Amino acid sequence: MDAIILQTLNGLDKGSAYALIALGLTLIFGTLGVVNFAHGALFMIGAFCAVTLQRLLSASYTTLDETRTDFLGNPAKIETPYVEAWFGPDVGAGIIEWSVPLAILFSIPVMMLIGFAMERGLIKHFYKRPHADQILVTFGLAIVLQEIIKYFYGANPIPTPAPDALTGSFDFGALLGMDPNVIIYPYWRLVYFAFAALVIGAVFAFLQFTTFGMVVRAGMADRETVGLLGINIDKRFTIMFGLAACVAGLAGVMYAPINSPNYHMGMDFLVLSFVVVVVGGMGSLPGAVLAGFLLGILESFASMTQVINLIPGINQIIIYVVAIIVLLTRPRGLMGRKGVMEE
Amino acid sequence: MLGLGRKDFGLLVIVALLTLLAPFILNPFPSDSSLAQFNAGYPDLMQRFVIFGIFAIGFNILFGLTGYLSFGHAAFLGVGSYAAVWMFKLLTMNVIPAIILSVLIAGVFSLLIGYISLRRSGIYFSILTLAFAQMSFALAYSVLTPITNGETGLQIALDDPRILGVSQTADGSIPVTHLFGLEMRATEVVNMGPWQFQFSAGYYLCALLMLIAFYLAIRIFRSPFGMMLRAVKSNQQRLYYTGLNARPYTLAAFVISGMYAGLAGGLLAAMDPLAGAERMQWTASGEVVLMTILGGAGTLIGPVLGAGFIKYFENIFSKINDNVLHGWFAFLPDGIEDALVAVVHPFIGKGWHLTLGLLFVAVVIFLPGGLVEGGQRIARLFRRKPAPDTERAHQHTPAE
């Protein structure tokens, strides 16, 4: 029982990341009909937003302290971050420590801008081209974005810690009245899950309960008719692209403490997210979220020692196996709509 | 001639001349000049040109003719490499059995994957092949370690059985790959004045096999089978309505291109007997897609051009560093020189992938036909034939 709870919890954080990326992919696919291979790169850029903000906040000036000397006998150099100088040492240190959550605010406009630029600058010209061309151009774009990040931040992973208050782990088992120390779960992963749930909820609420969302949903169902009604659907779809980029970016920001960002983290996630989208059903938002969590949890169950002893290597391939089975038995995916991407 | 039309035969002859004379063509600079670093005529690089040429030719048979975009072709290359190295370990260091086995194993493997993947088309096909390739990659890294030697990669060792050969040579070292005694690494160095040309046995074996592969590709392109594949690309629906089942044709194309990839993998192992899982990673699959698109998908010569282009510039760009740039721009005033170097800096050396990515995006946007289309456009510009009207009259737009 405790093993099952533990694995479910373990699956949730990875599942949340899959679900968020897959949600963005589906938003883009459902609205613009574009298969975006650069979505993983957006996730990666999100994670680097956290890195950037951390660096910006830690930007500091150097003062010489004559009273102390370093080992060479020179006056010791003291690095004081500007924020500490402005807000006082305590508040300043606090701001630096909380840079990852603060990066959420920082990344939203950045990702929006990147999303708009991508859609208006490049992807707009590919609506009428075959899907193969869209895959190819976004694939090339992903390489470019990745290499730009590599140029500025280097190839090594950059540790981006979560705030101290959220780094520890807590005893989940004790909460359920089990023996202590059976289920230990890091706080940050719980935060990640809660955050993902919040973002997913917000996106769905936005689509479901606002006029803007209603128009977008109508456009997803029948773009031409909405256009004929005199609504500028292209503009709204561009905004949806920005929103999707935001979702991917936020997923990346919050993932930075779990996995130190490096320039190819996006590609690693992208392949899996595509599988998630296909399993969930192309163009189905609830399907993407459901499949994301489902596959995340399945993956963590497959990593249990008992399971690995039974079928060696299953943890590496479970997602792909599930995807292949789903594609062959339910070609539309778990919750795919009729008539979407059926040639 | 050889069952080819005049134009195709001419193309084959040109490619044959280019590959056979490559040690000369790729070494235009005397070895003592400062430009010698741009020579590409050394065996290792030339072998990569032709091997990836084979890989791209095979990929083009699938993608160029049927339009099915596979993102998992590197899996077949990897499987071919493993098969070849196992042959070196178990049977003999002669490359012939290794190459034959790698082609066969890759063929069987692609039959399996193709049979399942081709049930779907479009984006689903791409993702299925991607999933299969990633699966093979993950397995090669983890569970299949007894066969693949995991992260280290499969290598030949002194205590391998090698039933038909020797486990180790007389002086106790690992034997080298050979073709009936002709060592693959044997290189004849010819000095002509300041020029130095290298003729490698391994390169000529690869080049010969590439020419055969290219010839077969031309025959496939011009055959009724090739026409069927084109029909699949242009309108599969119509093919079904005619009462034809497209799947056996696409499956055959998939297996053929898988076997080409296996041949390339086998040759890679024959030139340098080791095989690693990273050859199967999806970035490797992406590379062959880049080569084919960059050269021109669906054309005969395109994939070869693309493979040569990417491998050549990968090599050259990685060598250029800031000092070289300063040398080039030395004639400019200092300020401008530094500024220019700073601008170019991100694109060279380790930044080659950035250049490649930008180039690729540009090609997809502006030149969907790749380098071949670029060449044709330039040729048309010079010919200035005022006859687009008749051309257009002959084009039949299919009714949807």
Automatic annotation (TrEMBL), chain A:
Keywords tagged on the record: Amino-acid transport, Cell membrane, Membrane, Transmembrane, Transmembrane helix, Transport
Presence of keyword Mitochondrion: no
Keyword NAD found: no
TM region(s), chain numbering: 16-35, 42-61, 95-114, 190-216, 237-258, 270-295, 307-328
Topology of the protein relative to the lipid bilayer: Multi-pass membrane protein
Compartment(s) of residence: Cell membrane
Protein family: Belongs to the binding-protein-dependent transport system permease family. LivHM subfamily.
Protein name: Inner-membrane translocator
Species, as recorded: Roseivivax marinus
